[in-house]
Amino acid sequence: MIPPIPGAPAAPIPLFIDSLNQAIDQATLAQQCFADLSALFRAIARLSDTYTSAHELATLGNTLAQDWANLCDVEREELEMRCGELWGAVGPGKWMG
């Protein structure tokens, strides 16, 4: 849990939480884009003949896109957890006058 910083100004806290929320939105969008790219590669693999370069490249692209989508999803979850910890440590009752 993120401890409150004694003597730190409270005004930037909402801006920091907004920044975390924007990062969460960006990670969500990136995850969705990689999932879409993965679907495109799967379609190409299905339409191409097995054991061709096109099929192998599409399969590789699908695997990479899935890995990147997963990476973005994990990052989003970590950002959400940190945002929740920050909000719990310095919630509205603690920084609003």
| Quaternary structure annotation | single chain
Query: Helix amount, in percent?
Result: over 70%
Which whole number gives the mean pLDDT? 87
Number of helices: 3
Order of helices and strands: HHH
Head-to-tail CA distance between termini = 23 Å
Integer-rounded radius of gyration: 20 Å
Strand content: under 5%
Low-confidence runs: none
| Shape designation | rod-shaped
> What's the total number of strands?
0
Kindly give the count of domains.
1
From the helix content, strand content and strand pairing, which structural class follows?
A: mainly alpha
Q: Main sheet, how many strands, which sense, barrel?
A: none
Chain-wise SSE layout:
Layout: H1 12-47, H2 53-89, H3 92-95
Helix pairs in contact: 1-2
Write out key terms for the chains shown:
single chain; 97 residues; rod-shaped
